[in-house]
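Q: Hi! First time asking for a complex rather than a single chain. Here are the components, and I think there are two in total. Is that enough to go on?
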Amino acid sequence: MTYEGVPALVETVEAHGETTLVVDRARLVEAGMHLRDAEGFNFLSDITAADYLGWGGQGVSGYIGTASGRDLNMPMTQGHQSLPKPKPKRFAVNYHLLSVSERPRRVRLQVWLDDGEPVPTVVPVWPTADWHEREAFDLMGITFSGHPNLKRLLLDDDWDGHPLRKDYPIGGEPVRFSEAE
Amino acid sequence: VAAISDRQRAPIYEGTRIPQPIPTVLRVTQELRDTGDVMTVNFGPNHPSTHGVLRLIVDLFGEDVVGLEAVVGYLHTGFEKNMEQKTWWKAITYPERIDYLAFQNNELVFVLAIEKLLELEIPPKASWMRTCLCELNRIHSHLVWLGTSALELGAISMFWYCFREREMVLDLFELVAGARMHTRYFQAGGLAEDIPRGFFLEARKFVDWFPHALDDYEAMLTRNRIWLERTERLGLLSAADAIALGQSGPVLRASGVDWDLRKVEPYLSYDAVDFDVPVYPEGDVYARFRVHMDEMLQSNRIIAQCLDRLEAMEGEPWIADDRKVVLPPREELHTSMESLIHHFKIVTEGYRVPEGEVYVAVESPRGELGCYVASDGGPRPWRVKFRAPSFVALEATATCMSDALIADMIAIVGSLDTLMGEVDR
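A: Yes, that's all I need. Here is the structure of the assembled complex.
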């Protein structure tokens, strides 16, 4: 199965038996329409936003080599140090598509963006995107241009910041003391 | 109890009724608003029949629901952020608490994602036992759904009957894992412990008894006049709308779409068991009730087949032999230096999972439960995201409720089988 006909296709990645289609952010809706109408991906399972700030920085205990595959029976495999492949931009938004049909299959549509850059909404393509996009806006701070009702979903309307970002402090909710009021 | 209803097996409406421009909000028309008779009522979040803490802002015109907006987030606990701070091994305890009725299915989906990244094969015994427990879990979840939904519509005795069998399922979980809920019995690589002695005997007792219990439920509800009046032709959702709104599981199958991930994308041992997928085309509350009832019977069939297979696997390994991921057998720690080191490393630092991103989906009792995991090759997940079927089911409330009465709201919200822990995560 090839997806060469998808408009605005930047890159196709095959890994772990899954296909990822990286598309140009500005033409996302066009790509979505094509996948829905021409390829039969009528079902949007999920939208996941991920923050890659600090990706590839040294973790607590380094990294294991994975480029040549991971062979547990080989001694010293654990000791190789290598960094993960760099990401093109800070945020990724993944659209997990499914074809509910005689020929079930899945594909991941992916766009990349930096902080403050808007992603066009896919609510006209898949209405279920409504809450998924609101969740990504709420927790990750990604703006979806053209969304009919873009406001916080899970957190309070006056919440400060976006908790799933990597620079959001853990346990960082300020304590209010009574004498301060 | 065959041929229970003489309903016409056909969709009640076709095409689309999804509200525009916001698919999840039903807006009052200006014409109606101008009459001055529209009253806005706040329903929830603390209400016994909202299955947790769901808040609905309802506009009423007389008794008709003319406007609706669902407000969620009262149970948001930041599971996904928390999991990023834990090692893979410790993070397995979190998904169980997201959907606290389908805990084993939630645990399973995260463990499957880890195994997919690690490219770890599990032994057949682990695969069959997982299948068995997931189906017991489905029965458990459906029983709580049936009991509480019927209770909300006034059928109090249903609640006691359902919880009677639910206790039997929980006793089985206790026998296997020591805990009644949140068992944490699945490990990356297989199971945490071997199947305990006595499990098969007790599980067989349940499997033999459960169809009789289902007959009791059918006798109480299926042709009950009050139940029919309160569930038939209500909360309608067509097949086209269900797919557009991302519905899955019983809600999708009650809208006439023959779709079950256990059949179309078999995982674990589902390709080797014999079972049917119940599909009802009407798309109303009663159809969802029928799907749940039939699924419980099918789950019982699957469990019986799993038990047959498992009994023949006495003495086989229950977890993969991969010492970089799996804890060494306890008795080796006293004699083997290497095992002690492995044990120490896995418990303190955690195992590392190769770089990559995967999306794994399983058929939880509520529908497609997905888990997206991204790893940077380190000992902790970089990003975990759950595709919660209840979250998506709540998006359909505005469509389902578009010509409902206020008294039907409870039945409709209940039929979507939402669980707020999973919605808010």
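A: The beta strands of chain B are 25-26, 38-43, 55-61, 64-71, 186-187, 190-191, 356-364, 367-375, 383-387. Let me know if you'd like any chain examined more closely.
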